Amino acid sequence: MFEGKVAIVTGASGGIGSAVVKQLSEKGAKLTLVGTSQEKLDKLAKDLNLKEGQFIAVPADVSKEEDVINYVEKTIEAFGQIDILINNAGYESKVTPIVDTPIDDFKRVIGINVEGVFNGMKYVLKHMIPRKSGVIVNTASVAGLMGSPGLAAYTASKHAVVGLTKTAALEVAQFGIRVNAVAPSPVDNRMMRSIEDAITGGKGEMAKKEFEKNIPLGRYATNEDIANMIIFLASDQASFLTGGIYRVDGGMGAK
To answer: CB 3.0–4.6 Å: which of 72, 151, 218, 229 could bond 123 by disulfide?
Structure first.
């Protein structure tokens, strides 16, 4: 499905990111793995049995413009093109009301979740536009479609991802480039463990049960549930889809 394609995946060593990398690699893509830890990226490549020449691993803090420029340049040096960007790196905020939210925490969340997405699109599109081809999939959240008390920074950041996705899609449609976003509900991975524990003071299982009551299908999404939608949007099967925000939410949006 992705033979001859080159994909960049940010947040590659996280739960959703690693599930996306697995599917892309199995379907023939060459990959740039981007994450904050070289050690974790190397472990991911080893665990997935990625071969030399099939991937490169580039550590980066996506909130830093120079790091984004670097992973884009490294991809061009290694593979000569960029066909797909999975803008997936993300950071959860501390669970506090607005009046108690430290400004440094707010800025950190915006830096990774918003500036990281913006810079990724900015510098990848500089290569996609001349080729008049490419696909970008951003990871938003259902928190980007509603209010989430206690998660002001995270919620604001994901609303911003929605706006960036729609704006970019309109700007580059004339070049045949598609830009979409996925909006997951709670996913059964490390980020939700952190949020659950923060809400309940370490009694995360209690929070998990309460969250699941609000999901019609009665469970959290798996990393693979989200990866399946990302892979579809990145594929030619979604050739007429752009500017969309696709909920993967177990029915939450139907309420």
So the answer is: 72
